[in-house]
């Protein structure tokens, strides 16, 4: 196999499911290097392998769910785990890694079951999010809103595989950035000052694209921050969407490597793409899934990656929402499953694509958790939601 041209080798490897691909890494140094270190291979393989959708309460979840996009079942909420004593927060999903909090802050790869424990005590923002009074609903909501200020970025180039956690700090027209490489928290010297006042969009997660984190503001402009260079800027794009029944949804189109904004009415969903970092242009319209208006409380887009668009609808007299998935390649809607939810905006959704990537840590700084620690039990349970038995 060493003599095969790369395009033929890729055709073989792309046909392997993840468990077999992991085994292939152990057979040959050259193949291991190609699988592990070539970002083009990782990117193409990740696009071909099936993705899943994590969903959980925004306020600290005692139930965490994960459902593969390849699975369609109108009654199923997906694989689930119950955490009795420690609530779970997910802050980000990037390159097959999850940033989550269960009594401690972790970065974990659910496929390989490898993880790192991170110190969050040096972060002013992170401590506010996971602390506080769990009986004070106003405080809980405020902390859930702050969680949208946390960005998770994984650098996957050939020579380095590392991650950064970036918290954006909003102060009127000035934005500052709190950064961690997994060991220490510090305030970046970089700030952005805007000439106009427009708040960051509430309940909107940042989008990581081309090595840069992007936070959306209410006027359609974007605060962009590169965790590696620590350069920040305001993208002065203004969004003038048409008629809409929902708050715009901010996402990455992984197929076309573009930032997108999605709006919609009960009839049509509109996908806008940011062109040349200046103009939001309508690039696609999708006929919305049919919903019974007389029983409808609300509906909204909860996930989009260029291949799948996911819509949740809430009906009267039920805490169970129906989730629909639109396949952009097949141009079809299907009922994806159901989701327990009691409020209009009480859940977080994270699209997750498994990968073999992991970021090594300094053995001298490594934090060890006992195998019988309750946090370990819960972390393993959440990672186990990614089914690798197929």
From TrEMBL:
The F-box domain, residue ranges: 1-44
Cross-referenced Pfam families: F-box
Q: State the name under which the record lists this protein.
A: Galactose oxidase/kelch beta-propeller
């Amino acid at each position: 196999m060493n003599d095969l041209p790369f395009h033929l080798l890729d055709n073989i490897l792309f046909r392997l499911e993840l468990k077999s691909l992991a085994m292939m890494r152990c057979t040959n140094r050259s193949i291991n290097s190609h699988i592990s270190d070539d970002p083009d291979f990782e990117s193409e393989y990740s696009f071909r392998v099936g993705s899943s959708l994590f969903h959980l309460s925004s306020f600290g979840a005692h139930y965490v769910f994960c459902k593969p996009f390849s699975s369609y079942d109108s009654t199923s909420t997906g694989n689930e785990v119950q955490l009795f004593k420690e609530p779970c927060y997910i802050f980000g999903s990037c390159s097959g890694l999850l940033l989550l909090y269960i009594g401690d802050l972790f970065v974990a790869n659910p496929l390989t079951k490898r993880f790192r424990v991170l110190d969050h005590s040096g972060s002013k923002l992170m401590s506010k999010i996971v602390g506080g009074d769990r009986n004070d609903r106003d405080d809980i909501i405020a902390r859930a809103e702050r969680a949208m200020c946390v960005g998770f970025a994984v650098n996957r180039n050939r020579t380095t595989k590392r991650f950064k956690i970036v918290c954006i700090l909003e102060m009127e027209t000035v934005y500052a950035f709190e950064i961690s490489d997994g060991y220490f928290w510090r305030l970046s010297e970089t700030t952005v000052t805007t000439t106009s006042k427009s708040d960051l969009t509430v309940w909107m997660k940042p989008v990581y694209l081309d090595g840069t984190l992007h936070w959306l503001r209410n006027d359609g402009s974007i605060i962009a921050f590169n965790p590696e260079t620590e350069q920040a800027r305001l993208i002065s794009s203004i969004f003038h969407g048409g008629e809409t029944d929902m708050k715009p949804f901010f996402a990455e189109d992984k197929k076309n490597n573009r930032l997108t904004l999605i709006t919609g009415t009960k009839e049509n969903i509109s996908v806008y793409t940011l062109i040349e970092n200046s103009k939001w242009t309508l690039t696609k319209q999708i006929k919305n899934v049919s919903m019974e208006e007389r029983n409808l409380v609300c509906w909204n887009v909860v996930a989009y990656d260029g291949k799948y668009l996911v819509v949740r609808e809430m009906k009267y007299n039920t805490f169970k929402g129906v989730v629909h998935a639109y396949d952009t390649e097949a141009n079809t809607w299907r009922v994806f499953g159901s989701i327990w939810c009691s409020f209009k905006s009480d859940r977080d959704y994270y699209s997750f694509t498994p990968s073999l990537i992991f970021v090594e840590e300094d053995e001298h700084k490594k934090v060890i958790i006992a195998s019988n620690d309750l946090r370990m039990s819960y972390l393993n349970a959440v990672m186990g939601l990614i089914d690798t038995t197929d």
